[in-house]
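ugh ok fine here u go
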Amino acid sequence: MIDNQTSGDSKAMSTEDLEKKIEILEAIQVRDKRKIEELSALADRMQIDFDNFRKRTREEAKKLKDDGICEAIEQILPTIDVLAKAIQMIEDKKVADGLKMIYKQLAEALAGFGLKEIVAHGKPFDPKLHNAVMQSRTKDPARIGYVTEVLQKGYILGEKVIRHASVKVAK
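structure:
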């Protein structure tokens, strides 16, 4: 009988121990589940931060490229102006035709980067695109405020004005 009682107590003890162990394991499971959720949320935030970083870096690289193109074009524009004037001044047709071909190739190359000439002659004066450097009198009141002559071509690249057109405006 004593043996049965002892073995009964050990069974009761072992069930109690098992219940405590189950409670401990359940607490560990809850803690681990929270930790997994925290790490998962952290991984999601890191992925979002990385995606934002990649987008920002791509935009910055594009801006640097566009700025470099703008700067290069700004350096080339005076040469285009001189070439255009030289074409007008040269009397030898063959030489003038050769310069026209060079001018055309250069203009096409720059157009390949998206450079466009600002159309100004006969258009209403627009301070966003034009720089009025002279005025001319007009007898036609409907022509007041319109560009009568382009003194220096203006250029636009995308939405950015590279150089305003220098113009004469009717008053």
